[in-house]
Structure formats: structure tokens, C-alpha cells
Design goal:
Layout (H helix, E strand, L loop, with lengths): L4 H7 L2 H17 L4 H7 L6 H15 L4 H7 L6 H13 L2 H25 L1 H18 L5 H31 L2 H17 L4 H12 L2 H7 L4 H6 L2 H4 L8 H13 L2 H15 L2
Helix pairs in contact: 1-9, 2-7, 3-4, 5-6, 6-7, 7-10, 8-9, 10-11, 10-16, 15-16
């Protein structure tokens, strides 16, 4: 969480930079280039956390290490979802497919983050107006120097610590029940498409969703239970799974087509949020 206003607004750009990283990486892989060469020629990425991940991969792969070993060695640079999809693609020889999945996922997340950032323009405007207006209300008939001093103090305080409020607000806007469900379904479909075992995919999808209800529902489940229990049965009785999604899960269990069924549902759910 960033304390400054600019830092909080900039944090919403991370999804875009991750999407660009994976898009450029995928383009190079499709062209037959070595991963470390692609990432090196990509150039510096403006977002520090993503740039650190890029440089780490360039150096590590240049030393002969695998993508799987690298993402497992530095989990702080890759979210569990990213790392699992990259490792699955690396181990199965389908890295290009995994990179496309990650590109699509982060592109969608950035579109939602962009809407949130636009919505945050209003509280930022109110914060600036308050910094200029409060001294005139609280200190009537004071000298001009006093007004100027308090305006400077309030404005500096808002810019330096107002990011906490904006970070909390953006988190709320990005984690509505509908969006966390859509994220859960999308990540579940993506991880299954990348070749991860069902149990691992379910746990990653729940973690990535940010939905507390889903997390509470499966927290006591073992990997064996997650891997052997049909998805619809696994989430039976969970209040965060609406009837429509439960129906799609039952269809996916019956047909074995989790990716196709769940991707369609996630797309429809996300479309309703636009």
C-alpha cells in the first residue's frame, strides 16, 4: 500500500506493465528467440517491480536456469498465479500458451484498474479542494500568511498520506463480489488451460480472486480433496457461488471441459460489470 497519492494512482498501472511484459515475451518466443534475449532486448520497464522481475529473468536464464526454478526461487517477484502458469508452461513446453494466458488476464485486469483510477479522480479533486477551503472555514479573519501556511500543510499532508485512503478505496472498487467471482473463474480456467492439476488450479484461483468467502470455504481442504472432488461438489453450499455458476460447474464436471465452460461464464460476468 502506498502512502502518497501519486504512488496509489501509479500502483494501478502494474497490471498494464505485466501485460506488456508477457505480450512482448510471447511475441519473441513465437518468433523463435531465446527467452533471455527477448527479455533483454525488451528494454527497461517503467514500473519498478515488473522491471525487477524482467532483469531477474534475464540474468537467471542467461546463467542456464529454468523459468520454473527462477519463479520458485523468488516468489516475491511473481504472484502465485503468475508463477504457477509460467512453471506449467515451461515444464510442458507450452510457454507461449502460458504467456498468452497471462497477457489476456492482466490486460483485462488493467481495463478494470483504469476505470477505478478514473473514478478516483473525484476524491482526489475533493482532497485538493478541501486543502484550499478548510483554512478559510476554520480560521476566519486570519492573516494571509496563516491561510497560505495551512493550505500548504494540508495540501502536503493530503499528497503524502492520502494514498492510504485511495489504496483502500481502489481495493474496494476492484474487489466487488461480482468481480472477485469473475477473477476466480478466469484464473481457474487459465490455470487448467495451462495444464495445472485441478486441485492446484482451484486453490490458486481462490487465492487470486481476493474473495474471503471462497477462501473460508476451502481453507480446510487438503490438496487431495481438492484434486479428487468434483468442483460443483467442492463448492456446494458456498454463498459466494451463485446458481448460474454452480450450474456451469456441474456442466464442466460432467463434460470435463472446465476451460471452455468456465471461460464463457467469466466473460459474460465481466461484460455485465462494464
Amino acid at each position: 500500500m502506498s502512502f502518497t497519492v501519486l504512488g496509489a494512482l501509479r500502483a494501478l498501472d502494474e497490471q498494464r506493465h505485466r501485460a506488456e511484459l508477457y505480450r512482448a515475451w510471447n511475441a519473441g518466443v513465437d518468433a523463435g528467440m531465446q527467452t533471455n534475449v527477448v527479455l533483454d532486448q525488451m528494454g527497461t520497464i517503467a514500473y519498478p517491480a515488473v522491471e525487477e522481475a524482467r532483469r531477474y529473468l534475464v540474468i537467471g536464464i542467461g546463467q542456464g536456469k529454468s523459468v520454473t526454478a527462477l519463479v520458485k526461487a523468488r516468489p516475491n517477484l511473481f504472484a502465485p498465479f503468475d508463477g504457477a502458469v509460467l512453471a506449467a508452461g515451461d515444464e510442458s513446453g507450452t510457454l507461449g500458451q502460458s504467456l498468452r494466458l497471462l497477457t489476456d488476464y492482466f490486460s483485462g485486469e488493467f481495463k478494470r484498474a483504469l476505470k477505478v483510477r478514473n473514478a478516483l479522480g473525484y476524491p482526489v479533486f475533493l482532497g485538493v479542494v478541501a486543502a484550499f477551503g478548510l483554512p478559510f472555514v476554520a480560521l476566519p479573519k486570519s492573516p494571509v500568511k496563516t491561510y497560505v501556511t495551512w493550505i500548504a500543510v494540508l495540501l502536503a499532508g493530503f499528497l503524502l498520506i492520502g494514498g492510504v485512503f485511495l489504496s483502500v478505496l481502489s481495493s474496494i472498487l476492484l474487489n466487488t463480489n461480482a468481480l472477485t467471482r469473475a477473477r476466480f473463474v478466469r484464473v481457474l480456467a487459465s490455470t487448467l488451460e495451462a495444464g495445472l492439476p485441478l486441485g492446484r488450479a482451484v486453490r490458486l484461483a481462490v487465492d487470486a480472486s481476493g474473495n474471503r468467502g471462497l477462501a473460508e470455504h476451502i481453507k480446510k481442504r487438503t490438496e487431495r480433496e481438492l484434486s479428487t472432488t468434483p468442483v460443483a461438489t467442492l463448492f456446494e453450499g458456498c454463498e459466494e457461488i451463485p446458481a448460474g455458476l454452480m450450474g456451469q460447474m456441474m456442466i464442466a464436471d460432467a463434460t470435463g471441459d472446465y476451460r471452455g465452460t468456465l471461460t464463457v461464464y467469466a466473460r459474460e460476468l465481466e461484460t455485465r460489470q462494464k
